[in-house]
Amino acid sequence: MTAPLTPPPHEHSAQGPWQPPADGPVAPGSEHAEHTADGWYGQDGPGMRTEVREAAVVAVAVALGGVLLGLLWWWLAPHVPLVGDATGGNWVVYLKDTEGEQAIGVDGTFVLLALGFGLVSALVVFLLRRRGGVPLVVGLAVGGLLGSLVAWRVGVWLGPAQDVIAHAREVGKGVTFSAPLKLGAKGALLAWPLAALVVHLGLTALFGPRDPEPEFADGPYGAPPPAE
Fold it and tell me: Is the confidence at residue 71, as pLDDT, over 50?
């Protein structure tokens, strides 16, 4: 009599579902990811450090555009006429045209220019980097706000003298001179960043890359569904 033959042990595959892949772990939620010094990235774009660096560059570049906005505001803004008068040795300054709308025009000119700069900056940033991202949008908004502040200070610096009494004494009694360039509505400083945000988000929604549609298996374990 011969001893019963025991069946050979079941051979498992060299790499079962419980074993990690041979190439090492991958980032959660991505089958094609690569690890670099900037973190995980793959189909979802660069890592967070790269995005933050790009956002910082965008913020600085957009803020520098405020110098050009300040020059244009100083050049295009209407002048507010003032007149000085001396009464008993004391100088007083008043508006020459009390019903004039030049002061409103100064703020309106800044807002219109800021809206245009917001549109152009958002378009340029979108064309340079279509993928978008939260850091990039934040950098664009911060750069627009800093650019508005720079433009405001540059325009005031280039405009007429801030000491209107001294200016009135210099030009003489009854002589018309221009008031200092002044931004009455400080909310105008938000025109650039808000316009940049709206335009960039709109361009990203219309022309930005689309996420791939998820692929579903036909049946369990990828097998076709049973015939009815």
Answer: yes
